[in-house]
Design brief:
single chain, about 210 residues, about 5% strand, elongated
């Protein structure tokens, strides 16, 4: 099995398209969050429990993305990285991003919205990954084809685990990934502001979601 052909785009162009798609999805999901509320209200046990699960997911995402960067940072265009998290998944950094998206949505107190955030991330990154795969196949040929054939696209196959004897760490890229991950934490005050607006009846609630 080989990657599905896709239009020729370099990684920079792919990343720009991804950012636009993420922005559109985020706008729609935030609109849904503003006009909906979790069952039991903003101070209910369900709401607080979902928020707590979401915070754990965000922390896991930040740590996991940083871990992946130790292996892949700055090397994506230069070589096929197939050790550590990249031995069990071709896109582990994206998997942790899905977890982070779930955590962001969960700050609404609704599992439905949390799942919608995660689903939107999966959809956006799926099409991004198709283009990345085509790029990597053009760049690395059969070497990437073999890696593609044995390693799952997203969800890990732990039996494939192989680690590197040593890593060359690029601190600037590692810190950049950590910084980008910490932005996820901004979801907490943002959704708290929505909660305050709904509790004060300044934001109209049209539906309640689990």
């Amino acid at each position: 099995m080989t990657p599905t052909p896709a239009p020729a785009l370099d990684l920079a162009a792919i990343q720009k398209l991804r950012k636009v798609a993420i922005g559109i999805a985020l706008l729609g999901l935030m609109t849904l969050s503003i006009v909906s509320q979790s069952v039991g209200g903003v101070d209910g046990r369900w709401h607080e429990s979902v928020e707590a699960v979401g915070l754990a997911a965000i922390i896991l995402s930040i740590v996991g993305r940083a871990w992946c960067t130790l292996y892949i940072g700055g090397r994506k265009k230069a070589e096929i990285v197939n050790r550590g998290p990249y031995a069990i998944s071709r896109n582990p950094l994206y998997v942790f991003s899905f977890i982070g998206a779930f955590g962001i949505g969960a700050q609404s107190g609704s599992l439905v919205i949390a799942a919608a955030f995660a689903g939107a991330a999966v959809l956006v990154f799926h099409f991004t990954v198709l283009r990345e795969e085509a790029f990597l196949l053009r760049e690395f040929g059969e070497t990437y084809g073999r890696y593609f054939a044995r390693t799952p696209r997203f969800w890990p196959r732990f039996s494939l685990w192989r680690d590197a004897d040593e890593l060359t760490i690029r601190p600037a890229l590692f810190l950049l990934t950590v910084r980008d991950g910490l932005v996820f934490l901004l979801a907490i005050p943002l959704f708290e502001l929505i909660d305050v607006g709904q509790a004060a009846h300044r934001l109209g609630v049209v539906t309640r979601l689990f």
